[in-house]
Amino acid sequence: MKSQTSYPKAFSFEFFPPKTPQGADKLRAVSTGFAELKPCFFSVTFGAGGSTRDNTFKTVIDLKDHTGIDVAPHLSCIGSTRDNIRDILTAYRERGIRHIVALRGDMPSGMRDAGEFRYANELVEFIRNETGSHFFIEVAAYPEFHPQAQSAFADLENFRRKVQAGADAALTQYFYNPDAYFRFVDSCEKLDIDLPIVPGIMPITNHTQLARFSDACGAEIPRWIRKRLEAFGDDTEALRAFGLDVTLELCRTLLERGAPGLHFYSMNQLEPSLQLWNELGLQDIKGSATPSL
Prior knowledge:
By secondary structure, the chain is an alpha/beta fold. The protein has a single domain (2-284), classed as TIM Barrel (Alpha-Beta Barrel), CATH 3.20.20. It is built from 11 helices and 8 strands. The chain has helices at residues 2-5, 21-35, 53-67, 82-94, 120-131, 152-165, 178-190, 207-217, 223-232, 236-256, 271-280; strands spanning 10-15, 41-44, 71-76, 99-103, 136-141, 169-174, 197-201, 261-265. The chain has an 8-stranded parallel barrel with strand order 1-2-3-4-5-6-7-8, surrounded by 4 helices. Helix 7 (178-190) links the parallel strand 6 (169-174) and strand 7. Helix 9 packs antiparallel against helix 10. It starts with a helix and ends in a 13-residue tail after the last helix.
């Protein structure tokens, strides 16, 4: 963990593009609440194959104009062409966006051709070649390893290629076993990979939803947590109190051991992430920083 302790703490929140006017109104209110915390940035997810690309762009610009907080759009390369990605980058540059989360993305249902990019490192390299140092580039990291990786070593090599292609920092998939993160960072250090690797944090508020997300993305819910969540049944209040305790302990352990910040998967909800923020006393942590652009 030595590499991570040298970086200033950076805290951020992730949103998804709303699909309805009511969702847009809610996100505006939620982002206003988070903006008061002065996070490092907001990120906005991106649909592969064009499903939410336009909505992502609109959401990014609305958030930037409304809150004044740096916004990092996700950019997925699967199903994309170089011309398409070039147009998106140009549009973001023209609107003053200087932060990108570069991802491979998932193959949309029914799509057989991955497009002109196969892997995220190719997207990172393309962004660097097209725009130089204009964008601060985040990439994904998987402490419990990508579900499609052939092996743990292959996944680390994939991560190293993204870093070598020009990534500035990494955001991890969420997890609940801190040792997975610590071992991942230690493995990166042995490969001379040195950049901020910020843990992703998913608040626990709904067992069914969490189980579905985790099964899809390969994030492990430790058995003792899963069984406790199952036992609460319809007792939402007790489930959320337990989820808060579990996630608080995880965050405290990560920060105490030197993690360079936290990235909250907010699910466009204010209270769960805000409660974690307040309980952790993050408003009192100095050194929360915007990436150097």
